[in-house]
From TrEMBL:
Organism placement in taxonomy: Bacteria, Pseudomonadati, Pseudomonadota, Betaproteobacteria, Neisseriales
Organism field: Vogesella amnigena
Name under which the protein is recorded: (Fe-S)-binding protein
Limits of the Cysteine-rich domain: 3-81, 130-224
Superkingdom assignment: Bacteria
Amino acid sequence: MKVALFIPCFVNELYPHVAMATAELLEGYGIEVDYPLAQTCCGQPLSNNGDSRGACEAASRFTELFKHYDYVVSPSGSCTSYVKHHYSWYIADNAAYRALQPRVYEIIEFLQDILKVEQLPKPVYFPHAVSIHQSCHGLRELQHAAPSELMIPYHSRLERILQLVDGVEVLLPERRDECCGFGGTFSVDEPEVSVAMGEDRVAQHEATGAEFIVGADPSCLMHMGGIIRNKCRPIRPLHIVEILTGRGGAA
């Protein structure tokens, strides 16, 4: 199969190592990975701020760029969710998008649902305690875990795939699926509320005794990471692909 790597704009600018770890992980399973250089923002910030024309143009451009690939894979739950579940607000009548939509995957989804991995490409040893952060988009739109409000048996994609890593200790904060407070442009419109929520969330992860906050959405990790640096806290945010490729120790 030929897979296109969809790297959100902020990941490209701030977390290129997450993009490279994602590519390395896919290539480790023998997949041909392409990175279309013409890709830009998926349009989520435009949509959040009411720019329907810009959001429509971004959705159409994304579709044209990625429509010929077998799959499109991204390390961002939020951006993946937006493409899969919200482009239809703007281009529902686009036949190319309707064909592309089921082939767009967040990286952990892709590993578990398409590749059905039972082992990592190479053995990984990560002797650290990690606290799992379930991001809102991944949790409720990509079914990364069971939302607590549904009162159904608990499961977590992130916990399950971390079972393939030797030495890791997986912990959960007291409220396992509480929002970190980022919310994209919400953090700009309501900075005081956003920061207060983030401080609470970091404190909940710290209370587990973990050394790392591990998630599958760089935007949440970015928000909590900023608070951690500002408060000089010892816990560190880490994208899950960095652990799965053995890059976590250098984070």
